[in-house]
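Ticket #4471: structure output looks truncated?

Reporter: J.K.
Steps to reproduce: submitted the chain below (418 residues) through the standard prediction queue, then opened the result file.
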Amino acid sequence: MAVFEYKAFSASGKAEAGIVDAESAKAARAKLRKQGVFPTELVEEQAGKAGKRTQAAARSPVEVDVKKLLGGGRVSTQDLAIMTRQLATLLAAGISMIEALNALADQVENETLKLSISSIKEKVNEGSGLAQAMRGYPKIFSDLYCNMIAAGEASGALDIVLKRLSEFLETQVELNNKLLTAMVYPAIMGVVGLGVVGFLMAVVVPKVTKIFTDMKVALPLVTRILIAISNFVAGWWWAIGISMGLGIWLFIRWKRSETGKASWDRISLKLPVFGKLQRMVAVARFARTLSTLLASGVSLLQALTIVKAIVSNSVIQAAIEDTRVSVQEGESIAEPLRRSKQFPPIMTHMIAIGEKTGELEGMLEKVADAYESEVKTRITLMTAFLEPAMILVSGLVVGFIAISILLPMLRMNQLVHR
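Returned output as attached by the reporter:
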């Protein structure tokens, strides 16, 4: 089914514009006429500006698979969080679902999200449930999102669920941004540092050391080492580049394979500093998501299935799956989590208390708050430590180059003054 943007006149002669979905342009025109709207211009939405230019030239819309566009277009978590909060606010204010979706379609700037909301509005207008309509766009609205919406519709507290969902998405955005910032800074510093050192070794150092070799003086060991490294970099820079590129490609290919991913996930959890941080991020995400789902009315078994899908580490995924099976067999959630040894003892202890007191959702939320706070603290400390550490390493490299060049110059100066 395609989505068309139209300009039209109503029966009273008032100009209006909007979006309608239909199998074809002819069907869209017929649908609009039934609603008392008479289109003067009709353009298939996903063709965008190119479609408008085509219409101006040929007056025939381009047939494109809108489902493919909406399934593959990029919608950031931030965009989704803002849209969810706006929808929660509109519904809480007593605005009907159709009017709220119509307002969102006008408000949202992301083109893919705008198209999906317009299509969802049409489906809801035809009698479909909101969650059911959203399931048609799995790359925009995840299983977690749709299940929470469905639970909200069933309980009659959709505005509350949407507010909780927007808070969950905003928390994920904040945590992801913090992680991204922590990774980008050292990566940029490392690339710039390697580039500067490579330039010095391949271009600057050979010109300076050529003076020493031409004078045929005995060179200190550090200078001979510098010359050997410089000659290697200058002569084999292309091989170094190819080897690094090939090594990265092979590593990525291995990590994407089933055995490679399983091996890397085990190794990454044991890495110093970063392994513990990765585990804490996974634990915080597990607790936050499970708490949000349970508080929204999703069953525990279904919630565990959804949580398993959003945790990227296969080792922790396996522990969650074992827990789900154990819960299905009648066991509590805390015991299988403890047996897996993938979750901190304090977390499993708090979950056990939450189960006994009937406050599992609240306890999981406290666990998530604690670990998210610790993750942010560790990231801040790591970032603060990395900056001086990288400056120190750069200083040592530059110092090595400077000493290697200055020592023979001092020796030559002494020979001249004798």
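Triage note (M.O.): checked the attachment and the full token line is present. The longest strand covers residues 2-10.
Status: closed, working as intended.
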